[in-house]
Amino acid sequence: MTPASNILAIVGRPNVGKSALFNRIVGRRISIVHEQAGVTRDRVSATARWQDKTFEVVDTGGIAFMDGEKTADELAAATRRQAEVAIEMASALILVVDVVAGLTPLDREIARKLRASGKKVFLAVNKVDNERRQHGVDEFSELGFDPMFPIAAVHGLGIGPLMDAATADFLAGGTEETVQPTRIAIVGRPNVGKSSLINSILRSERTIVSEKAGTTRDSVDVPFTLSGKAYVLVDTAGLRHKRKIATSVDQFSLMRAERSIRECDVAVLVLDAMDGVTRQDKQIGGQILEAGRACIVLVNKWDLALEEERRTQKAFREEYLQAVRRELFFLDWAPVLFVSAKTGQSVLDLFRQVACIEKELARRVDTPQLNRVLSRAMQSYPPPVIGGRRFKIYYAFQKAGAPPTFALFVNETRCLTPHYERFLADRIREEWGFEGCPVRFELRPRARRKFVPGHENDAQA
Predict the structure, then answer these.
(1) How many whole angstroms separate alpha carbon 455 and alpha carbon 461?
(2) What average pLDDT does this structure show over 340-346?
(3) Same domain, 158 and 252
(4) Mean pLDDT score of the chain, rounded to an integer?
(5) For position 202, what pLDDT does the model report?
(6) What pTM did the predictor assign?
(7) Which of 125, 170, 308, 440 has the greatest CB tally within 10 Å of its CB?
(8) Domain boundary among 166, 190, 209
(9) What are the angstrom distances between the C-alpha of 129 and each of 34, 134, 335, 439?
């Protein structure tokens, strides 16, 4: 567990290397690092450890304009607000400057703001990777932070002294075993309301919301607690069709969002109620299915859809639900919620549904009963003959872990058709539920032999 007071925020103007330093501290690539300025827009946070200190490190978007200066760039203004919130939350600050660009008026402005915060500030002069650049460090003494820490974040140079100083006053701890928070990935097309949903849950402007599609670039981890239970909401970049990926930053964002799906406990597929289910929604749903993640389908902007409907809400809702089920037939096991991130309508129902899914993910099936259910299913509806052979199951058991996965010892793996696989999964669901969870099969070809009770481990080998 990270002590609540251990929060380290990385601040600076755009493109000075804040994200590279963040990734170096965390020990893995979380923030997107790119030569294009302004790639990080939201606050990106992660838990890190240095020596015996566990802490939260926050990567902020670059502050791109001076106090009192007006900007027509809505995103730049929102990014600055996010950075200011991070400064307020932090117990210590790292100000990153660029030795190659030299000292700028904006560096001076940010330094003044940080001094006014009353927090401890540690000046990291970045990109000092040779002797010539070392001579440029003294220029930054004008900012009044002593000592200065010359670093090269990309190469990992000078990080040790900086982190020793920045974490010196942090509370030690965090090594005890803790229950891992439930990771919920909020995924969907650009501009369906993913960030608005998270802000509605948190009741704060935690991620940048804009009418402009593609506002969220990074997958942003948002830890929070509800009714004593810990969660991490992952606000992902909108998943575009690959043909519409215009830049390498978009490509990185896509990869990060896809990884967030693979690493989450529950994926929430957000649809726009005004658009219905689009081809791209189906593709994202397919990614969730392929990753084997539990899933909730969340229809956002339901308030707007109701405004344009003359039918009763109940009738319209039922018709819409059937349309979602028809278009996302491969996710027919996923519960569907109708919400409005804008008004907050039914938003917290999401967590009641997540709690139900967690119970389903932990469900264990009795092995003899499983074999009886599958045997009856195959007798009532025999599998088709493929290449002169009919699919047979000799023995089945549920493997440990999530998602629910059943090992099947069979005569021919190639004889199980996708249609019949869905049929078997449906029979399992009828018996045990598993709402919101994919049901997977692991086929193991095996010569038919009589199963001897008490020798289950031999069959699993």
Answers:
(1) 10
(2) 92
(3) no
(4) 82
(5) 83
(6) 0.65
(7) 125
(8) 166
(9) 18, 8, 53, 52
